[in-house]
């Protein structure tokens, strides 16, 4: 009378609470509904943007509920934690019964259950004794386990297959647990960061994504070369970085990485993610005299004031820009400088790298253009470490296998009862299955047909 | 003729097939149903030919890739899977009424792809992030899943209509498959869809991990696919362990398909990594 015992034990109460599928349904639906919030409200933006969007009051409430990073908020994690406990408790609760069913030596069959389920009946002119030896092979051919029991007026064959398929659902549940543990391991022992490396240079640390802090690496990443190619339409086709991993200054591994093909080294993954132009520090400038065509060449560092040839004054390059917009046209990379004539006001001027004659428009005696500036790219790398991934992938595989078993296989039982009726035999074939009951009906019909055919070819 | 033309013609053929099925259902003309089957087969052939032709064209343009890379191509594939699954059901259950409730979805999807001014049918080169074999596995899994859910949606509508007519008197509902068959079939479709949705999420996660180093990032599309997964997981638990059937499950199935639609179209209105699906 175990079930009637009223339990006052709080552990039992808690266990019961978590053993309920109602709780599962509630939690799944709550997770589904609350997950929507984070897709509507952009996550992890800066506070000013939120205050602008929602106002002080709402901002404070949202902030309190961690809405701006909701998938990592205490309440969302709490829901996931509850679901995990729920899955574990539900599975344990049902597993012992399943275990007994699957690993029993002599499975139990309840003839009443068969009689109440889908069944087929036919009569045959043979006696039960004559049918017995013919029927058993037919049944055991398509069912793994079959046994025969004598009855008063004949016999019954019980057979079944697919007992193990009852474990499918536990596979799916275990897979979810693996995913969650894998995720937890990743968030505790992994990191996610990025680093920009100019061509030819190397780094020993990266910047973490969440905190913005520097994370030292056990090795050095060197970017030997970076290249980018474009389709005719101008959209990027491929980013490619040639990387070398250095340990104690010695190269150990070299690889060209592109998007979708990272470099993995000592549990750390290095992904191609972006690129950009490195700000040049020095530039070779040409000063052309408009009238004589005489060209003077000078090297200037950014911020360094130089004297112009022919005593035309002073010039300083103030800054570099990777794209300069002139009357709606993007002229690309350019230097912005300030020219101070010997007697006159300083004037700001633009020297686009790709348009050497741009400065002619100024109509000054000297035309300034860029002879060369060492053009360098930097490669933008994403650097991650996630020791939880193997567990997560194991979870993925288990989930697919578990779903296949849980959805498309079933534990099928069949019962063939043969009863003597006068000189004839009445044959009843009934089948039950824990899933896909319609499929089982068709199967029962098929077995019944096979048996009547078998009886038809028996001699006598 | 290029693939876009061929697929536009396919849209028309699917429209015709849907019309025949509906006509056959409303006016009880079995010959129209048979016409529907043949038209559907023609449409499926056109659809497959269109996809293959598009694949060939992309190679001719020198940017060869499987035609599963943007909204247009995914809608075309979605329609194909719906039609193929439907035809398999029609064959195994010998019932053409279901066609009146499922083929229109395939037609609408194709029509949206072909006619909407917001959807470009141009073959575009792949941006670096999309250059992965996981792209094909991911898109195929997702859309097989979505198509199965679409059919489950059609069946759920039929179920809701059917259950109102308990005495089986309504002449329109009389020809529907049995309540039990509808219920079982829609359950089968949901299990099938759930398996492929899971596979779709998983292949997407593996892909994201190989492209960006994170298998899950709570990007709106990811989150919505998970929401969809939650809804159908709820449905499966309600049925497996609590024995829900019929009406209540049908409502859940409709909610689930709404989540699918939002994952598919609605999320494009939100910012995120899946912006190339627009």
Q: What are the main properties of this structure?
A:
heterodimer; A: 460 residues; alpha+beta; TATA-Binding Protein; 4 domains; 8-stranded antiparallel beta sheet; 5-stranded antiparallel beta sheet; 22 strands; elongated; B: 278 residues; mainly alpha; 2 domains; 9 helices; flat
Indicate the topology.
The complex is a heterodimer of chains A (460) and B (278).
Chain A: H1 10-18, H2 21-40, H3 47-64, H4 74-102, H5 111-115, E1 119-124, H6 128-142, E2 145-151, E3 154-161, H7 168-189, E4 191-198, E5 202-208, E6 214-230, E7 236-247, E8 250-258, E9 263-265, E10 268-277, E11 282-289, E12 295-301, E13 305-307, E14 314-321, E15 325-326, E16 329-330, E17 334-340, E18 347-352, E19 366-372, E20 377-385, H8 389-408, E21 412-421, E22 424-433, H9 437-456
Antiparallel strand pairs in A: 1-22, 2-3, 3-21, 4-5, 4-20, 5-6, 6-7, 7-8, 9-10, 10-20, 11-12, 11-19, 13-14, 14-17, 15-16, 17-18, 21-22
Helix pairs in contact in A: 2-4, 4-7, 6-9, 7-8
Chain B: H1 3-27, H2 30-60, H3 71-93, H4 97-115, H5 133-163, H6 171-174, H7 179-211, H8 220-242, H9 246-264
Helix pairs in contact in B: 1-2, 1-4, 2-3, 3-4, 3-5, 4-5, 5-7, 5-9, 7-8, 8-9
Can you walk me through this structure?
The complex is a heterodimer of chains A (460) and B (278). Chain A is of the alpha+beta class and 460 residues long. Chain A has 4 domains: 91 residues, no CATH class; 96 residues, TATA-Binding Protein (2-Layer Sandwich); 127 residues, no CATH class; 92 residues, no CATH class. Helices cover 34% and strands 36% of the residues of chain A. Chain A is built from 9 helices and 22 strands. In chain A, the strands form 5 sheets. Chain A has an 8-stranded antiparallel beta sheet. A 5-stranded antiparallel beta sheet of chain A has the order 1-22-21-3-2. In chain A, strands 13-14-17-18 form a 4-stranded antiparallel beta sheet, with no helix packed on it. In chain A, helix 2 packs antiparallel against helix 4 and helix 7 packs antiparallel against helix 8. The longest helix of chain A is centred in the first third of the chain and has 29 residues. Chain A is elongated, with a radius of gyration of 39 Å. The two termini of chain A are 54 Å apart. The mean pLDDT of chain A is 88. Chain B is mainly alpha-helical and 278 residues long. Chain B has 2 domains: 126 residues; 146 residues. Chain B has 9 helices and no strands. In chain B, helix 3 packs across helix 5. The radius of gyration of chain B is 19 Å and the shape is flat. The two termini of chain B are 26 Å apart. Chains A and B meet through helix 2, strand 7, strand 10, strand 20 and helix 8 of A and helix 7 and helix 8 of B.
């Amino acid at each position: 009378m175990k079930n009637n015992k009223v339990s006052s034990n709080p552990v039992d109460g808690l266990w019961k609470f978590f053993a309920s599928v109602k709780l599962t349904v509630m939690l799944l639906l709550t997770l589904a509904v609350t997950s929507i919030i984070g897709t509507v409200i952009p996550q992890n933006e800066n506070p000013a943007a939120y205050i602008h969007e929602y106002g002080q009051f709402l901002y404070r409430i949202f902030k309190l509920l961690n809405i701006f990073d909701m998938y990592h908020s205490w309440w969302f994690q709490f829901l996931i934690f509850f679901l995990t406990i729920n899955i574990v408790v539900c599975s344990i609760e049902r597993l012992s019964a399943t275990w007994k069913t699957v690993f029993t030596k002599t499975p139990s069959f309840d003839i009443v259950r068969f009689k109440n389920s889908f069944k087929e009946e036919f009569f045959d002119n043979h006696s039960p004794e004559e049918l017995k030896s013919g029927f058993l092979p037919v049944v055991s051919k398509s069912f793994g386990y079959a046994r025969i029991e004598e009855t008063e007026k004949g016999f019954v064959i019980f057979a079944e297959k697919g007992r193990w398929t009852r474990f499918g659902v536990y596979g799916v549940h275990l897979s979810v647990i693996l995913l969650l543990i894998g995720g937890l391991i990743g968030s505790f022992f992994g990191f996610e960061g990025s680093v920009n490396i100019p061509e030819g240079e190397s780094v020993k640390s990266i910047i973490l994504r969440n905190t913005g802090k520097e994370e030292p690496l056990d090795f050095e990443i060197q970017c030997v070369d970076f290249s980018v190619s474009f389709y005719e339409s101008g959209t990027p086709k491929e980013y490619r970085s040639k990387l070398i991993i250095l340990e104690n200054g010695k190269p150990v591994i070299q690889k060209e990485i592109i998007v979708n093909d990272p470099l993995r080294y000592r549990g750390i993954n290095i992904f191609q993610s972006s690129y950009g132009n490195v700000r040049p520090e020095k530039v070779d400038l040409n000063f052309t005299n408009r009238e004589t065509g005489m060209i003077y060449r000078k090297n200037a560092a950014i911020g360094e004031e130089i004297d112009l040839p022919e005593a035309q004054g002073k010039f300083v390059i103030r800054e570099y820009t990777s794209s300069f917009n002139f009357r709606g046209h993007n002229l690309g990379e350019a230097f912005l400088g300030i020219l101070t004539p010997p007697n006159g006001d300083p004037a700001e001027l633009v020297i686009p790298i790709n348009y050497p004659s741009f400065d002619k428009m100024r109509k000054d005696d000297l035309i300034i253009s860029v002879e060369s500036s060492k053009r360098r790219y930097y490669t933008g790398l994403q650097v991650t470490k996630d020791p939880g991934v193997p567990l997560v992938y194991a979870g993925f595989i288990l989930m697919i296998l578990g779903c296949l078993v849980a959805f498309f296989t079933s534990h099928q039982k069949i019962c063939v009862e043969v009863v003597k009726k006068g000189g004839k035999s009445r044959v009843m074939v009934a089948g039950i299955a824990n899933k896909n009951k319609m499929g089982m009906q068709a199967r029962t019909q098929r077995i019944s047909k096979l048996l009547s055919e078998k009886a038809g070819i028996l001699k006598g | 003729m290029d693939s876009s033309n061929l697929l536009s013609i396919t849209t028309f053929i699917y429209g015709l097939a849907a019309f025949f099925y509906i006509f056959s259902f409303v006016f009880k003309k079995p010959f129209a149903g048979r016409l529907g089957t043949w038209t559907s087969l023609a449409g499926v052939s056109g659809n497959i030919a269109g996809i293959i032709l598009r694949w060939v064209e992309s190679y001719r343009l020198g940017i060869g890739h499987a035609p599963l890379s943007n909204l247009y191509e995914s809608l075309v594939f979605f329609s194909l899977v719906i039609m193929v699954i439907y035809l398999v059901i029609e064959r195994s259950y010998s019932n053409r009424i279901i066609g009146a409730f499922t083929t229109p979805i395939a037609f609408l999807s194709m029509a949206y792809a072909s006619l909407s001014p917001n959807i470009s049918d141009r073959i575009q080169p792949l941006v670096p992030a999309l250059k992965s074999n996981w792209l094909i596995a991911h898109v195929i899994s997702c859309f097989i899943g979505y198509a199965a859910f679409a059919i489950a949606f059609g069946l759920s509508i039929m179920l809701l209509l059917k259950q109102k007519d308990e005495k089986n008197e309504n002449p329109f509902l009389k020809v529907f498959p049995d309540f039990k068959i509808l219920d079982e079939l829609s359950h089968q479709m949901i299990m099938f869809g759930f398996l492929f949705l899971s596979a779709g999420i998983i292949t997407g996660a593996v892909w994201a991990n190989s492209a960006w180093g994170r298998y899950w990032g709570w990007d709106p599309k990811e989150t919505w696919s998970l929401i969809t997964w939650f809804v159908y997981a709820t449905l499966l638990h309600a049925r497996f362990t609590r024995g829900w059937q019929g009406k209540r499950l049908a409502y859940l199935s409709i909610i689930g398909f709404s989540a699918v639609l939002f994952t598919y179209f609605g999320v494009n209105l939100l910012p995120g990594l899946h912006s190339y699906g627009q």
